[in-house]
Automatic annotation (TrEMBL):
It comes from Cystobacter ferrugineus. SMART domains: MeTrc. This is CheR-type methyltransferase domain-containing protein. Residues 326-335 have a biased composition (Basic and acidic residues). PANTHER family: CHEMOTAXIS PROTEIN METHYLTRANSFERASE (PTHR24422:SF19). Residues 287-312 have a biased composition (Polar residues). CDD domains: AdoMet_MTases. Residues 1-269 form the CheR-type methyltransferase domain. One of its GO terms (biological process) is methylation. Keywords: Methyltransferase, S-adenosyl-L-methionine, Transferase. GO terms for molecular function: S-adenosylmethionine-dependent methyltransferase activity.
Length: 441
């Protein structure tokens, strides 16, 4: 039943508003199933009850029903390696104090365990801590155990598994005790105005909020990012997933680009007139990408110059039908050009307070060179979505999804996990369809 026709549509709206979520059809059905057997059905009185202190427990159950609790240990290895090499290790060497990390939207605790292990592996101060929060009470109850199945540990390197996990028997494994002691958990809704803070009051050194924002409405997305940025320490870093790039970063954040990942650092405060602003310490040098693509430093004024052909698109070596070697070389050349241009787009994304009009043009040029560059199509969809062009956004998301489903899409730096990108496209399509007025569909 479409959500607009559901007898519980007002409750859908309440849950969506409280969580900032763009409810999918599955999430709406879960709410309906929860309420279907309720005596008396839907009523204005019940809606008021859910919004009262007396109804808080029932509202929490509905929020729990829509929460996404799918996560993994050491998820997105390329990004985690960049975090370890370029951020954690230099920070540990420089800070020489306990670090404070926050996993926002930690689900059942896999990311908290991952961060605790990473801190231990780089030799962080033993008093360093990781806070895990989630809006689901059920998820937090499981997360507090920091216990995982043998299947979950299969993706963990054997040496890491032996050092930091102990068998409990019956296929269950626990994080070692001295690491578990460094974790704390809290039920927290990112849409609530009150956010966690560190004991010292200096802010978090690193906040990790991955694969959470894709479930939010654009307005909630922006609000949460700004709130998280406010909780960062002066040199703190915000880590989002590759499918949640900031097309326009708030003034409080600056984009930091590395060979296989990008993060968002707390921007230094504006200096008084005539006084140079303090520069953010470099966490580590930018290294060339293992894929062979240049790791271009962020441009200070939009996209780096790209020489277009007379048609307005980058020149591509011509290929001749019937000449497979030449055709293959031409296709490889086009793919390299597309990847290089896409790399430049990523440099520019998030470096402006407002979306750069050139971003759309550059993404279209990427897709002229390689129509199956699904990551570029996904970003183009995000550009349209941020602009409120819901129909155009849905078209690009569907094209990207089709390319991924049919196996034609190439993995690219920052978007190396095509299955995760495919899931992000599905979620994006649901999100924009919900936002599209019925007359525009």
């Amino acid at each position: 039943m479409p959500p607009s026709r559901s007898p519980f549509a007002p409750i859908h709206a309440l849950v969506a508003r409280r969580t900032g979520t763009a409810l999918s059809e599955l999430q709406s059905r879960r709410i309906d199933e929860k309420l279907a057997g309720r005596p008396g059905g839907m009523s204005a009185r019940y809606l008021l009850y859910l919004q009262s202190p007396a109804g808080a427990a029932e509202l929490a159950e509905l929020i729990d029903a829509i929460s996404v609790q799918k996560t993994e240990l050491f998820r997105d290895e390329a990004q985690l390696e960049a975090l370890r090499t370029h951020v954690l290790a230099p920070l540990v060497a420089r800070a020489r104090r306990p670090l404070r990390l926050w996993s926002a939207g930690c689900a059942t605790g896999e990311e908290v365990a991952t961060l605790l292990v990473m801190l231990a592996e780089v030799g962080a101060d033993p008093a360093s801590t990781v806070l895990g929060t989630d809006m689901s009470e059920t998820a937090i109850a499981r997360a507090r155990e920091l216990c995982f199945s043998s299947e979950q540990l299969q993706r963990v390197p054997l040496g890491v598994r032996d050092r930091w996990f102990v068998s409990l028997g019956s296929g269950r494994h626990s994080l070692v005790g001295h690491l578990k002691e460094r974790a704390s958990f809290l039920v927290h809704n990112l849409m609530e105005p009150s956010y966690p803070s560190t004991v010292e009051g200096r802010g978090f050194d690193i906040i990790v909020c991955r694969n959470v924002l894709i479930y939010l409405t654009p307005e909630s997305f922006s609000r949460v990012v700004e709130s998280l940025a406010e909780r960062l320490a002066s040199e703190g870093l915000l880590v989002l997933s590759s499918t949640e790039p900031l097309l326009s970063a708030p003034p409080s954040l600056r984009t930091l680009r590395y060979a296989d990942a990008f993060f968002y650092g707390r921007a230094p405060p504006e200096a008084p007139p005539g006084v140079p602003a303090p520069s953010m310490p470099a966490l580590s040098a930018v290294r060339p990408s293992q894929s062979g693509l240049p790791a271009v430093r962020p441009s200070q004024s939009g996209l780096p110059a790209v020489r277009p052909s007379q048609s307005g698109l980058p020149a591509v070596s011509p290929t001749r039908p019937g000449d497979p070697p030449e055709a293959a070389r031409g296709e490889d050349s086009a793919h390299r050009d597309a990847d290089a241009l896409f790399s430049q787009v990523l440099d520019a994304v998030g470096s402006q307070s407002q979306p750069d009009p050139q971003t759309e043009d550059s993404l279209r040029r990427c897709l002229f060179l390689d129509p199956d560059l699904a990551a570029a199509r996904y970003l183009l969809g995000l550009v349209f979505e941020q602009r409120g062009a819901w129909t155009d956004a849905a078209v690009e998301y569907r094209r990207a999804l089709r390319s991924l489903e049919e196996g034609r899409a190439r993995a690219t730096p920052f978007f190396t996990n095509n299955s995760r990108l495919q899931m992000a496209c599905v979620r994006a399509i649901e999100r924009v369809e919900r936002a599209t007025p019925p007359t525009s569909r």
